[in-house]
Amino acid sequence: xxxxxxxxxxxxxxxxxxxxxxxxxxxxxxxxxxxxxxxxxxxxxxxxxxxxxxxxxxxxxxxxxxxxxxxxxxxxxxxxxxxxxxxxxxxxxxxxxx
Length: 98
Hints:
The protein is α+β, with helices and mostly antiparallel strands and 98 residues long. It is 42% helix and 21% strand. Helix 2 packs across helix 3. The radius of gyration is 14 Å and the shape is globular. The chain starts with 5 loop residues before the first strand and ends in a 10-residue tail after the last helix.
C-alpha cells in the first residue's frame, strides 16, 4: 500500500505525516488532528501497522469531517476489515482498460 503525503476528503486536503514516539508518549499507533487536518502515524510501526493505522485514521478523518457517529470499536473493526480486503484483493484497486 502506498501511503500518500496528503489525501483529499470532502474538499479538505489532509496531510499525512510520520512522527516519532506516538506509541511511547500517547500509547497510540497514530492519530488524526482535526485542527491541523493531519494524520500522524508512528514511524516506528511495522509496515503492516502503518497501513492499518493509515486506514484507521482516514476513517477518523471521514468521521470528523462528516460528523458521523461511529463508535471507536466499530471504526477500528472497519479499518481492520478494509485493510484485509485491500491486501487480499489488490487487483480490484488497479487501473484497467477492461
